[in-house]
Amino acid sequence: MIPLVRIGIDYELAARLAARTAQLTTAGADTAAARAAWRGARTEKAGIRDHLVRMAPGVQRCMYCGDSLATDIDHFEPIREFPAGTFSWPNHLLACSYCNSNAKRDLFPRDAAGNPLLIDPTRDDPAEHLRLVLRTGVYRGLSAKGTESIRVFGLNRADLTRGREVAFATRAAVLCKADDLLAAGRDGEAARCLRALAEEPHASVLHEMLRACRLPGAADVLGADVVAALGNPALLEVLRAPAAA
Question: How far apart are CA 121 and CA 6, in angstroms?
């Protein structure tokens, strides 16, 4: 999971969502009524999905696991918990069917004060709550919110840990190759390698590598060649360009 920037929505969509929210609030809609309104909101859902796709990591990857194709609009705070928030733009994230329908469903743990115990990557920095062990692909919780997010979303299920473990090896190889290409003056080829990484699943792996390279003992974790590659300003400039675009 990586931090994501929630983009603004266009005026027409914002007006539609506000009108839908006002209808639910005025009617004091319960869960059933809110779900019925959501099912019938074809235009609004299309607009929400379009904006969420633009925010998603990689090529329309799930905002929670970062691996599977994101197919579902997830209500971060479930409709059952917050009917009035059914059409609230800040309450929508894009998720794969597993994370949304098989794992999270209507689960929404809270602490004793009523605060959410799930990470919203558009509001929270996942790195404050999760630590990714690169060589095993396993997440460790750094807080109650991190631990609950691992549990609810199933972030350490076998396919994800294996995928992240493999992604680490692949990214290390690509970074070293790109560094060699830059040294040989083959900037265009290096850029193509690095930009391809921005579209790969498991964006959290590269995100953690960039964090780890600044820490003591980075060479023991990443390898000296990877640390050297990530110390190349020209490489970092190209690597970060797609995320900023």
Answer: 9
DSSP state of 6: P
pLDDT over 90 at 58, yes or no: no
Give dist(CA 45, CA 141) in Å, integer. 33
Number of Cβ within a 10 Å radius of residue 19: 11
Between CA 136 and CA 57 the distance in angstroms is 22
Number of other CB atoms surrounding residue 152 within 10 Å: 19
d(CA 26, CA 41): 18
Q: What is the pTM of this model?
A: 0.90
CB atoms within 10 A of CB 33: 16
H-type alpha helices, 131-186: 144-153, 158-183
CB 156 within 8 A of CB 163: no
* Number of residues assigned to the chain: 245
Task: Please give the backbone phi and psi of residue 151, each rounded to the nearest 5 degrees, phi first.
Answer: -70, -50
